[in-house]
Design brief:
The protein is of the alpha/beta class. It is built from 15 helices and 17 strands.
């Protein structure tokens, strides 16, 4: 597209979002790769970090690095206060009813495994069923397969359509009296499909089943209200939300979390330990064995502050405009086929090219300074559904621009010339 068209696309969201000011907050966006300005379009894999988050981590390690809880010295009390304040801000961010419903974990993967082992292993029996969808990341497939092997329960899968949407009619037939849990991604990491989570939660409740939502791709792009959704568990990762790696969150209904046994044993998840017995700690600490990722939790709180100051509504509008702009441009390229054309999508463009393997395309784009993701995106069943080995995936954040989309399309066109 022309520069004037790109400028118009940026202008559509400029009144709500000052993208150039935002880009200045992210130091890595100023670097060059292979002599070209970086166009970072791999946000579904991990996001870049604003200076405020980087400074928060630096301040923790420079000024009050200490272990939390139980310490009576000043640094420990300051670290504890910052860590627990971050927990409260996270609870407010997703509208949890109480900060004790927020469990710090390493990421979405650990959160799902925690539920599978703490809630599921002692409760499921042969004949019980877990329902997932054909759009799931491996992290929302493999833990349930492992749980089924351990308990004799059966894993059932809602199919998806050619557009990459959940077939809800089939889902209504799958969810029934034997269903104990329905686990679904809020947004597909491979296709960008925004799933009808509220409807799926409602269907599960009709049959007395619990629900877990994988929100890793949703929280950076949408306002999430766990109470409005009505889900029993909600999981997400910090690193996709412009925060540190190695930190994540499991939200759970307090009554459920109270009933569930600890998943790991060690320090801080206890009240009393003797060789005869152990008394476990209260929520949320009984699920947080050992020294947590203190800096990560504090940094995630800072990331949430940044997102809220920017405004999720403005972020969503900007990213939607970018997705529409990129989709229109991609459809004009001969030999390009979009994978995932759902009616409701987040800012992910997944595609294949005639005669070019996604890995080759990704390498060529990298040499032009354009970073995308290629492969199966930890969603191999989706690739099998569309009978392809992999896709190229460009994923946008609120700091991306239409000009970067133009560079992506120009790089694709250049790659076609190499392979023809």
């Amino acid at each position: 597209m022309s520069r004037s068209q790109a400028a118009k696309a940026d202008a559509r969201t400029g009144a709500a979002l000052d993208v150039e000011r935002i880009r200045a907050d992210f130091p890595v966006l100023s670097r060059r790769v292979h002599g070209q300005p970086l166009a970072y379009l791999d946000n579904a894999a991990t996001s870049q970090k604003p200076q405020s988050v980087i400074a928060t981590l630096d301040r923790y390690y420079s000024e009050y690095n200490a272990n939390i809880h139980r310490g009576v010295h000043t640094l420990s009390e300051e670290a504890t206060a910052a860590f627990e304040d971050a927990r409260r801000r996270i609870a407010a961010f997703i509208n949890a009813g109480d900060a004790k419903q927020i469990i710090f974990v390493r990421g979405t993967t650990e959160a799902i495994n925690l539920v599978a082992q703490s809630w599921g292993r002692g409760r499921l029996r042969q004949g019980d069923e877990i329902v997932i969808t054909g759009l799931e990341h491996h992290s929302n497939i493999v833990p349930w397969q492992m749980l089924c092997e351990q308990t004799g329960a059966k894993l059932r899968v809602m199919p998806i359509t050619d557009a990459g949407e959940i077939d809800l009619d089939a889902g209504r037939k799958l969810i029934g009296p034997a269903t104990r849990l329905v686990a679904v991604s809020h947004i597909s990491n491979a296709l960008g499909t925004i799933n009808p989570v509220a409807e799926i939660v409602r269907l599960a409740k009709e049959h007395g089943a619990l629900t877990l939502v994988d929100g890793a791709q949703a929280v950076p792009h949408l306002a999430v209200d766990v109470q409005a959704l009505g889900c029993d568990f909600y999981a997400f990762s910090g690193h996709k939300l412009f925060g540190p790696t190695g930190i994540g969150v499991l939200y759970g209904r307090a009554a459920l979390l109270e009933q569930m046994p600890p998943w790991q044993g060690g320090g801080d998840m206890i009240k009393v330990v003797s060789f005869e017995r152990t008394v476990y700690n209260d929520l949320p600490y009984k699920f947080e064995a050992g020294t947590p990722h203190i800096a990560g939790g504090i940094g995630l709180g800072a990331a949430i502050d940044y997102v809220q100051q920017t405004g999720l509504d403005a972020i969503a509008r900007h990213e939607q405009a970018l997705l529409e702009y990129a989709t229109a441009a991609a459809l004009r390229i001969p030999g390009l086929r979009l994978i995932g054309t759902a009616r409701h999508k987040a800012s992910i463009l997944s595609f294949v090219m005639d005669g070019i393997h996604p890995h080759d395309l990704g390498t060529i784009l990298d040499h032009q300074g354009v970073a995308i993701r290629t492969g199966h995106h930890c969603a191999m069943p989706i690739m099998e559904r569309f009978r392809i080995p992999a896709t190229a995936r460009a994923s946008f954040a609120f700091y991306n621009t239409a000009a970067e989309v133009d560079r992506l399309m120009a790089g694709i066109t250049a790659a076609q010339k190499v392979f023809t």
